[in-house]
Specification:
485 residues, alpha/beta, 11-stranded mixed sheet, 16 helices, 11 strands, 13% strand
């Protein structure tokens, strides 16, 4: 249990506090980065959060920030803030492996747009964070480089696929991080580790430089220790990008300022489908306390219906795996990445490289996706899944005509033990039951800590809002956070 094992949970300072220390000269960005590298050196052997470090890059950025501070110049919004980057986001000159053997040693020649925007805002990139291979997993046990451990209880999973990103913030091995969410891979690990995680509206953040899993589902979003800091990061990485044709050109609001607004008068929807069989009683109790806190803050709570929720997991695992089958076909041992040395023919090289380079879960999903797209099965599986996806999206659109936000548990259980679900893929997939719906619908959401179990394991509340409704989601999440449940 959590109380019987060593906890590695840290207490990161807020952006505002750190920025003020750097601006005043009380702290140097270089010294701050060095202190985080010291903590990484101490804790990474226990938690396996970082796959690689970018010390030279971090030193150059910290030096630029310190030079600005020394001259008394105005500092960028994230001046000196130490951040970590999920290893599916390419970073120039740094190993970007997507947690896979097939990309071991790959050093891309360019930066992901979201990473470049963070650095332009003054952030200091510490390194690349462990994740499930190609972002395929709900426990971070599928990484080719070993599992990440939950800082709250190292015998438990941190969630996945962005387990390293969530654990880094929880353990104060970074002040903020970037992760990706295809079916819950930001929200579920944030819930398991007791931090804030953000699912932006599809297209709100450029996907340029993201190693793709499911292109119609993949999204990049931040983790932070509090709602306001998470909102600040999203505001800095969001916005149009000519390098991503799916990126939205809608204006980016000041999400941090919006999160400060009161929630009095907002209508909050509670779907019965998310409180049915399979929900852990302690998780239910924590979420109900969160709902009571919103009522106390002046919100009106009303039931909403999302009846096709029960189909979300099979629909997601048909669409996501079909897209993965197409996206991962590029890893063939020819242009970059792992190439099998034991190949007499071109055909052998393809098959051996992919067989040796991909892990078991990635192979499983490629096979599922290829089957769903094959002749004779396309209409019965993939096309039908797309039709149900449309119905799910329409149900959310109808619900948001009556309410401003919808609140649910982020996950049906607290963090489970390492190895507990690895032999049962279906049980693992069901860990995403409350998160895949928003992914399929393209809407936005925030998960915010909402109490803990008797064993001290964090519980997260998921706050969902309509397309481009991030400001509302942040306001509601901030109210839950303020209640101190």
């Amino acid at each position: 249990m959590a109380g019987e094992t060593k906890s590695y949970v840290g207490k990161p300072k807020t952006f505002a506090a750190l920025r003020e220390e750097i601006a005043s000269g009380k702290t140097k960005a270089a010294d701050l980065a060095a202190s985080y590298y010291a903590r990484i050196e101490e804790l990474n052997p226990h938690l396996n959060v970082y796959l690689s470090l970018t010390k030279e890059r971090a030193a150059e950025q910290a030096s630029r920030i310190d030079a600005l501070a020394a001259k008394g110049d105005s500092l960028p919004p994230l001046a000196g803030i130490p951040v970590g980057i999920k290893d599916v986001l390419v970073t120039k000159g740094a190993a970007s492996t997507a947690g896979s053997k097939i990309l071991k040693g790959y050093h891309p020649p360019y930066d992901c747009t979201a990473v470049a925007r963070l650095e332009s805002a003054g952030a200091v990139v510490l390194g690349k964070l462990n994740c499930d291979e190609f972002a395929m997993g709900s426990s971070n046990e599928n990484s080719a480089y070993g599992p990440v451990r939950n800082p709250v209880d190292p015998e438990r999973v941190p969630g996945g696929s962005s387990g390293g990103s969530a654990a880094a913030v929880a353990a104060d091995m970074a002040v903020a991080t970037l992760g990706t969410d295809t079916g819950g891979s930001i929200r579920q690990p944030a819930s398991f580790c007791g931090v804030v995680g953000v699912l932006p509206t599809y297209g709100r953040v450029s996907r340029y430089g993201l190693i793709a899993y499911g292109s119609s589902l993949d999204r990049i979003g931040p983790f932070a220790a509090n709602v306001r800091d998470a909102a600040t990061v999203l505001g800095l990485i969001a916005g149009s990008d000519p390098m991503d044709s799916t990126c939205l050109s809608a204006p980016v609001e000041d999400y941090a300022a919006e999160s400060d607004k009161p929630v009095e008068g907002l209508k909050i929807g509670v779907p019965a489908e998310y409180f049915a069989e399979g929900l852990d009683p302690e998780v239910r109790a924590a979420i109900e306390k969160g709902i009571d806190a919103l009522k106390a803050a002046g919100c009106t709570v009303k039931p909403v219906s999302l009846p096709h929720t029960k189909y979300a997991v099979p629909v997601y695992y048909l669409i996501a795996t079909a897209e993965a089958s197409a996206n991962l076909s590029r890893f063939d041992g020819v242009r970059y990445g792992y190439r099998s040395p034991d190949s007499a023919t071109l055909s052998d090289m393809y098959s051996h490289s992919r067989d040796e380079g991909f892990g078991a879960e990635v192979k499983r999903r490629i096979l599922l996706g290829t089957y769903a797209l094959s002749a004779g099965y396309y209409d019965a599986y993939y096309l039908k899944a797309q039709q149900v996806r449309r119905i799910l999206a329409e149900e959310f659109l109808r619900a948001f005509t009556d309410v401003d936000a919808i609140v649910t548990p982020t996950a049906p259980t607290p963090a489970f033990k390492l190895g507990e679900k690895t032999s049962d893929p279906v049980s693992m997939y069901l860990a995403d039951i409350y998160t895949v719906t928003a992914s399929l619908a393209g809407i936005c959401g925030v998960t915010v800590p909402c109490g803990a179990t008797a064993a001290g394991l964090p519980v997260g509340m998921q706050v969902l809002a309509k397309h481009l409704g991030e400001s509302t989601a942040f306001r509601v999440a901030r109210a839950v956070e303020a209640a101190g449940i």
